[in-house]
Amino acid sequence: MSQGHYRKPGPDEPLRHARSCYDHLAGIAGIQLSQALISHGWIVPVEDQRGTYQPAYALTEAGHAALVARGVNIPSAARQYRRFAYACPDWTEPGAHIGGALGAAILHRLIEDHIVTQLPGDRTLRLNGDLHEWLGSATSGSNGQRSREDWTSAS
To answer: Is residue 87 a contact partner of residue 33, using CB atoms and an 8 Å limit?
Structure first.
């Protein structure tokens, strides 16, 4: 299907802020989550021959411990017959969010923790909680406070 069949959402449309991309978090919130995981050393880029446009990530020991502590089922994600984690190009924003088994496991946990709600019949996700708070103080801003709007506004 050509790009002409898709209409890029406007700046204030919920689809742009948070949505599912297959089974992982995308949009502004997905990119910011990806950036937080990288900047705090929870995931790191690795060499992968499977795609120039979708570089792979590995989970660090610190990232493994932190995500397991938040209830993300890392062992199950690691056993899946698919890429574990990669940079999935975002449709509405410049940048990438975390795709693969890790991205799916994180979104699943966010839904179970009621941080994110899947809207019926739609890819749009509603943020009910603060993703920085869910990640913990290690990924908070300098004063430790981030609002839900920080995750849903353009950088």
So the answer is: no
If we measure between CA atoms, which residue out of 113, 118, 147 comes closest to residue 26?
Answer: 118
Cα–Cα distance, 127 to 153 (Å, whole number): 12
Query: What is the spatial distance between Cα 144 and Cα 50, in angstroms, rounded to a whole number?
Result: 38
Residue count of the chain = 155
CB neighbours of residue 141 within 10 Å: 11
Decide: residue 57, CB within 10 A, 0-12 exposed, 13-18 middle, 19+ buried.
Answer: buried
What digits encode the pLDDT tens for the residues 113-133?
999 999 888 899 999 999 989
How, if at all, do strands 19-21 and 56-59 pair? unpaired
Full-model pTM: 0.81
